[in-house]
Write a structure and sequence with these properties.
Blueprint lengths: L13 E5 L4 H12 L3 E5 L5 H9 L4 E4 L9 H12 L4 E4 L14 H29 L3 E6 L12 H21 L4 E8 L8 H4 L2 H10 L12 H8 L10 E4 L7
Parallel strand pairs: 1-2, 1-4, 2-3, 4-5, 5-6, 6-7
């Protein structure tokens, strides 16, 4: 008997998305909902716009207004998700912040703030999700949000570069540990997207021109451009994909 055909459907699944109220997180949350998943959006900020877009696809959104990083209760976040929507099948570790300064001026406070949210929260949110999945005897999908700076150095973003290089590393480590236990761990590496994190770059005419000149697609990405990669990595279509870092960058890395 042949194996069932892979499916991109997420019907009956629940996806936890950190930083799901705005930007890239909202784009992925809505994309997952369009494939049939109910959404738990985790993090501060007004969830109403994302909730309305999710509802337009006939799916539910539950908001947990937890602040990720130092002192966050990741086990409680997963427990509330399961108690409210009945299960937890997919985790998207998207929440992230950035601080800019020359390396000679970079403060310990800015270093710690970015590492706490971008890297520490990614690991411990994954740990809490995996413990639930193992305890429930179910498969799971973890999608981390890496960056072009998982591959490159960048300038004036020391802690961001360090955090996103770390995200790439723990994506591979967790894939090694959990692939045989039924959890796929992969990452998406967005290129230059039109979000709050890139507003300063887009507002600088010279820097914006330099960036667009290197992107073969010739434009900034939109949050919805991540939806396809997120659905693929969340679905059974990617069941044999482990430890991959998928660039969604308009071709940036090809130059």
């Amino acid at each position: 008997m042949s194996a069932p055909a892979p499916s991109f459907s997420l019907a009956g699944r629940v996806a936890l998305v950190t930083g799901g109220n705005t930007g890239l997180g909202s784009g992925m949350a809505v994309g997952l909902a369009s494939a049939g998943a109910d959404i738990v959006s985790i993090g501060p900020g007004d969830p109403s716009e994302t909730a309305a877009a999710v509802a337009a696809h006939g799916r539910r959104l539950h908001w947990i207004g937890a602040t990720l990083g130092r002192g966050a209760d990741y086990k409680a976040i997963v427990a509330e998700s399961v108690a409210t929507l009945g299960r937890a099948d997919i985790l998207v570790n998207n929440a992230g912040i950035i601080r800019r300064a020359d390396a000679t001026e970079f403060t310990e406070e800015d270093w710690d703030a970015v590492i706490d949210v971008n890297l520490k929260a990614c690991f411990f949110m994954s740990q809490a999700f995996a413990r639930h999945a193992f305890g429930a005897g179910q498969r799971g999908k973890i999608i981390n949000v890496a960056s072009m700076l998982s591959f490159q150095g960048g300038i004036r973003v020391a802690s961001y570069t360090a955090s996103k290089s770390g995200v790439a590393g723990i994506t591979r480590l967790l894939a090694n540990e959990w692939a045989a236990r039924g959890i796929n761990v992969n990452a998406i590496a967005p290129g230059y997207f039109a979000t709050a994190n890139t507003q300063a770059l887009r507002a600088d005419p010279e820097r914006s021109r330099e960036i667009l000149a290197r992107i073969p697609a010739g434009q900034w990405g939109q949050p919805s451009d991540l939806a396809g990669a997120a659905v693929f990595l969340a679905s059974t279509a990617s069941d044999y994909v482990h430890g991959a870092i998928v660039p969604v960058d308009g071709g940036w890395l090809t130059r």
